[in-house]
Amino acid sequence: MFAKTNRKDLFKSPPTVFTDKLISQEARRSKALEEQKRRRAQKFESSRQLDAFADLNLGNSDDDGDLEDEPEIIREGVSGFVQMVSQPVETQSLSSDVHNHETVQSGKRRGKLRRKRIKAKPSKWADKCMYAELLEMNEEAHLWDSQSGDVIDGLPRDLEAAWVAVAPVPTGKRCLAVTHQSAGVVGTSPNTTLRSRVLGKMLLPRFPSSLPPLTVLDCILDVNWRDNGIIHVLDVLKWKGQDVGDCETPFRFWWRDTRLAELTKPPLPSGNFSFTAPSTTADASSQNAGSLSNIPTSGRERYRFPYPTSFVPIPYHTDTTLTSLSSFVIPMARSAREISVDIPVHVSPPEFTSHDMTIDGAHDSMVSRSTTSVVARVDSDGLLLYVSHASYEEGTSPLSCWIPNKAITGHPELPGISEGHDSPLDVFQRLVQRHTMKNLHVVLGLQESMDI
User: Fold this and answer.
1) pLDDT attached to residue 131
2) Residue 239 and residue 249: Cα distance in Å, rounded?
């Protein structure tokens, strides 16, 4: 029945509509958080190594002194010498016949095994990203909680105190940036690979970056990275071999911003720069119109990055009060972000005399390494919410919720998705405003009761 829908839009949809409180997103989130606390406590207890001291003692007690003079009685039978006895010849012949029979049977199955396709081993980086669930929202007013009297609309009960917002989330491809030990200088020697989110396959050949070795970052490869060289850093799993994924969300984001700010500015890709004529990129330029401002004139050739060079952190917001969400976070999730980047520019070589020709490559190096600073415009894809006390979790997790700013068509029965052109971010904004008005009415009611 959904044959006409776009398959690329279905990955943002939840599997079904949850109306039972036992299997709701709130219940699954609480269960996942308790499971994380249990694993964290178990890991802490195992790190103390208390089991290693369980069998230790201070020595023999005084009561055991009388037993030292007693002779030791050896209680062994002849069972230990049975293996030394040689086996009969008949047993050896019987075992050889069985072995020959198994060899014949294995030979018959060898042809079938050759026809079967050998499955490749899954990558260790497969499904390592913490993938958020679509926030399940419902604007129907009849869903009331009989115990607390609150509306069950899908917004977390502790949204204002125990969550962290990430906005604007850029449009691009989710991946992992993994660095390795390299013998060369950091920034010039290839030490970084990009792994896909689902299968963990390499998206690009190994390229140099200013990231330290043994670092794993959760990233979003910009949709126009060929033009701006940007890769957005969403989260951090490891840094210089230090496991940061077990830390809470605000600390991980603070660590991410602090460590990325300490990195040196990476050099531009060395070797032959890749410039593309405007005639061959007319279609691409029309699709990516407005992605770069202050770009050189259209008559000049545009530079194409062979790999991403700028690791840019995505802004996060610890203030998730209803007022902050309405006035700052949600408008930011709707707007595009502007990032300044340096891009090589192809400049026509100046005129020079025959005397200047004695310096080989002087003009080539000057021309090829001319750069300009431009402003890249990055479109927003929505808003992410993370539980503050949660650690990084592999795979799809209810501890992170996704609110896209584009409408999901073809699924009007899903929570938070109407038949119109409203996006989940529109529904989220209306629910936040509804909660704000409800809190205002409660405050006014308390003031009137106090006046009476």
Assistant:
1) 94
2) 15
List, in sequence order, every residue forming a beta bridge with 375; answer none if it has no partner. 293, 340
Residue 69 is classified by DSSP as S
Q: Are the C-beta atoms of 24 and 18 separated by less than 8 Å?
A: yes
Q: What is the pTM (predicted TM-score) of this model?
A: 0.74
pLDDT in tens, 228-271: 999 999 999 999 999 999 999 999 999 999 999 999 887 778 65
Mean pLDDT of the chain: 76
Count CB atoms within 10 A of the CB of residue 173: 15
User: How far apart (Å, rounded) are the C-alpha atoms in residues 244 and 254?
Assistant: 11
Interstrand relation of 230-239 and 310-313 (parallel, antiparallel or unpaired)? parallel
Comparing 437 with 350, the larger pLDDT belongs to 437
Give the pLDDT confidence score for residue 47 in this predicted structure: 74
Contact by Cβ (8 Å): 206, 239:
no
DSSP secondary structure letter of residue 349: P
Max CA pair span of the chain: 109
- The whole-number pLDDT of residue 370 equals 77
3-state SS, residue 51: helix
Cα distances (Å, whole numbers) of residue 182 to 16, 190, 205, 352: 47, 7, 15, 42
Nearest to 306 by CA among 274, 329, 267, 280: 274
Are the C-beta atoms of residues 170 and 232 closer than 8 Å to each other?
yes
**Total residue count of the chain as it appears in this document:** 452
Residues ≥6 apart with Cβ < 8 Å to 306: 207, 269, 274
Q: Is 398 helix (H, G, I), strand (E, B) or coil?
A: strand
Distance CA 47, CA 213 (A): 25
Tokens of 141: 């007013």
d(CA 310, CA 230) in angstroms, rounded, equals 5
Cis peptide before 168 (omega within 30 of 0): yes
Portion of the chain with pLDDT greater than 90, in percent: 43
CA 415 from centroid of its chain's CA atoms: 25
Helix, coil or strand: residue 377: strand
| Secondary structure of 234-287 in HEC code, one letter for each residue | EEEEEECCEECCCCCHHHHHHHHHHHHHHCCCCCCCCCCCCEECCCCCHHHHHH
Count CB neighbours of 307 within 10 A: 18
Provide CB contacts within 8 A for 274, sequence distance 6+: 303, 304, 305, 306
The answer on pLDDT for 295 being more than 70 is no
> How sure is the predictor about 452, in pLDDT bands with cuts at 50, 70 and 90?
low
Is 292 within 8 Å of 374 (Cβ atoms)? yes
pLDDT value of residue 17: 43
